[in-house]
Design brief:
This protein is of the alpha+beta class and 456 residues long. The protein is built from 15 helices and 22 strands. The chain has one domain: 3-Layer(bba) Sandwich (FAD/NAD(P)-binding domain), CATH 3.50.50. It binds flavin-adenine dinucleotide (FAD). The site of flavin-adenine dinucleotide has 43 residues, from helix 1 and strand 19.
């Protein structure tokens, strides 16, 4: 007999774990099961090695629109509120405040920074300050050391830098979900879902050759979520571009996060320098931007699934052509392609990226960290013939598919609140919205989140 559940979540990264927490703590859902194919949580993108560990607020992400900055700020504040409820030792194992700035190098970037700051960021983020070379040198001496005298620099310094070990945060959600349910939450690790079929209210999921029945299914499977949506026959007109990101490491040269100016509308940040929350002796530079034909970095067994997820029809091909030939994306991709070349790749990366942030670093100081990095599943919007900025959520009757490029770890709880609201409404389950408002969402200031709660 197949095991039966009310809700099955597929994927034990930060998206699945935060939803498990939300359902356990704030609803009366009876039987919830989480299936994860690896033997631990946060094994892929949510692992702290594989992402940039930034709690994004939208203040130094110069590629965001003002609306995206506002939304991201709310999402980050929800995470901060969760963290604020934890005992100190748990809080300290997950997060740490740090300095944070976005650096403009040369007149064109400085003009861009000024424009973004004056046209809105300074109103949304009163703590964001424009600073010049002297103040930069005080905060980050290595950013100014050995910089050519004639190179102009300016930065926006933020007062809300926060690095997060998203793996530990994922584990915290799982632990608290179990506590909220007195151990009644069902979790199966080492359990790989291979198929989903059925109809709303009566889904059958097969994992490790065994059938599970669920009324509602939520795929929090990272780059695999669209694969399963397509298996269900949904969203034939969407495809995913898997944008790989690698990191390089150097001895510690930065005190906080130093982001660079990025073109508006580009879905990935320019290479930045970051401290590592798991290793205080190093600075990380990245992520690079490489298109992989894989759903998981370095896992060639995912190539055939990637091909199944990608529609090679006219609309997709022409969208892809449009994206690849757009001036800004093309130049980023070509530049990054060079970084993968053996021999000259690292020196090109040093010259084009690292030395803009820390001019004094040499080839001996930096090395590619093959064990770090992941894949950002960017959705291709065939109507706009463009890449979607940020996360995508496909909601169908009694099913949800979460596709989570950056800043998907920051938006985990906001996403979980939205999903829970939708699930409860469809299934007629009680959602303790008052509890969520009391603990996590300030309904006066978090307008975008409140709108999502009402307008699912
Ligand atoms: C290079 C890089 C840098 C980033 N930097 C940041 C950052 O600084 N800040 C930020 O907020 N975000 C960042 N992100 C994005 C962030 O890491 C992701 O959005 C987030 O981790 C996604 O979490 P997830 O749980 O949705 O997906 P994942 O962490 O990928 O988890 C998906 C889970 O689903 C499981 N799964 C998949 N298929 C199956 C199956 N068939 N059966 C069972 N289980 C399955 C996987 O094993 C995995 O555990 C970055 C991403 C990358 C790649």
């Amino acid at each position: 007999m197949p095991e039966s559940y009310d809700i099955i979540i597929v994927g034990g990264g930060i998206t699945g774990a935060s939803l498990l927490y939300m359902l356990s703590k704030y609803t009366d859902a009876k039987k919830v099961l989480l299936l994860e194919k690896f033997n631990s949580f946060a094994a892929l993108n949510s692992n702290s090695n594989n992402n940039a560990q930034t709690l994004h607020f939208g203040d130094i992400e110069t590629n965001y629109s003002i609306e995206k900055s506002r939304e991201t700020k709310e999402e980050a504040e929800i995470v901060l509120r969760y963290l604020g409820m934890l005992p100190k030792s748990e809080y300290d194992s997950i997060t740490k405040k740090c300095g944070k700035m976005v650096l403009g190098v040369g007149d064109t970037e400085i003009q861009k920074l000024d424009k973004i700051y004056d046209s809105g960021l300074k109103h949304i983020f009163p703590g964001l300050k424009r600073i010049g070379p002297n103040e930069i040198a005080k905060l980050e001496p290595n950013v100014m050391k050995k910089r050519p005298m004639d190179e102009s620099v300016q930065a926006l310094k933020s007062d809300n830098g926060q690095m997060v070990n998203f793996r530990n945060l994922t584990n915290s959600f799982v632990k608290r979900a179990k506590l909220a349910r007195n151990g009644r939450v069902s979790i199966k690790l080492n359990t790989k879902v291979t198929s989903v079929k059925g109809s709303p209210g009566e889904f059958e999921i097969t994992a490790n050759g065994k059938a599970y029945h669920a009324k509602f299914v939520v795929f929090c499977s990272g780059s695999y979520s669209l694969y399963f949506a397509k298996m269900m026959g949904y969203e034939k007109n969407l495809s995913v571009l898997c944008v790989g990101g690698n990191f390089y490491t150097a001895p510690k040269v930065l005190n906080g996060k130093v982001y660079r100016v990025q073109e508006g509308g580009i879905p990935f940040a320019a290479v930045h320098g970051d401290p590592d929350i798991t290793n205080s002796r190093i600075t990380r530079f990245g992520p690079t931007v490489t298109i992989y034909p894989e759903l998981e970095k370095g896992n060639s067994s995912t190539i055939s699934d990637y091909i199944r997820t990608f529609d090679f029809d006219l609309a997709t091909t022409s969208s892809l052509f449009n994206i690849m030939t757009s001036r800004d994306i093309r130049s980023i991709l070509w530049k990054n392609l060079l970084y993968d070349l053996p021999g000259i790749g690292t020196s090109m990366f040093l010259k084009n990226e690292v030395s803009k942030i820390v001019p004094s670093l040499t080839l001996n100081d930096i090395k590619l960290a093959p064990y770090m990095g992941g894949v950002r599943p960017q959705i291709i919007d065939e109507n706009k013939k463009a890449l979607v900025l940020g996360e995508s959520k496909i909601k169908k009757d009694w099913s949800i598919f979460n596709i989570t490029p950056s800043p998907g770890a920051t938006s985990c709880l906001a996403s979980a609140i939205e999903d829970t609201s939708y699930i409860c409404d469809q299934m007629g389950i009680t959602f303790d919205i008052k509890g969520v408002e009391r603990n996590l969402v300030n309904k006066e200031t978090m307008q975008i989140t409140m709108r999502k709660l009402k307008n699912w």
